[in-house]
């Protein structure tokens, strides 16, 4: 009896797609290159995903799901702005080291010239926007910032800043500039925390 395809095959394709983009970028991530990287027939990419872009989006789905789980773990219990900045610094470095930044940056860049791909990438950025809004609302509750800025707008600005930092860090191949920015943000957060109640306290 012929062996039925399993999710393991799809997982291998996703892993190979992720590794290929990390190593050679979107431009070099052809079906042939991904298949060679993973040691399988390139026809399997089309069988399981329909095309190369779909396989790359599946890799982004997996990476985003894993990173969001880590974001929630790291931000759980954070109740003050300085702690939130420090947690964000840790997460940013993890994103960079894991290759998530590279994958996202490559697909964002590719989506700029391919409207359909761009639309699909934007859909996958949406959960991160929602998480940013949720975190802002929780940490900033009762603060002057929360009264001045809508949480949705703040989440958009924070996500745009974070994504821009990711793109630049990926381009420069270094975290030096982002480290300096996080250090400055930490100093500002320490000052703001003097006039902001901790979560759970009455303003």
How much of the sequence is in beta strands?
under 5%
Mean pLDDT: 87
Number of H/I helices: 10
> Could you tell me the number of beta strands?
0
The CATH topology is Tetracycline Repressor, domain 2
Query: Low-confidence parts lasting 5 or more residues at pLDDT below 50?
Result: 1-5, 198-203
CATH superfamily: Tetracycline Repressor, domain 2
CATH C-level category: Mainly Alpha
Task: Provide structural commentary.
- This protein has 203 residues and is mainly alpha-helical.
- The chain has one domain (7-195): Orthogonal Bundle (Tetracycline Repressor, domain 2), CATH 1.10.357.10.
- Helix content is 77%, strand content 0%.
- It is built from 10 helices and no strands.
- Helix 4 (52-75) runs parallel beside helix 7 and helix 5 packs antiparallel against helix 10 (176-192).
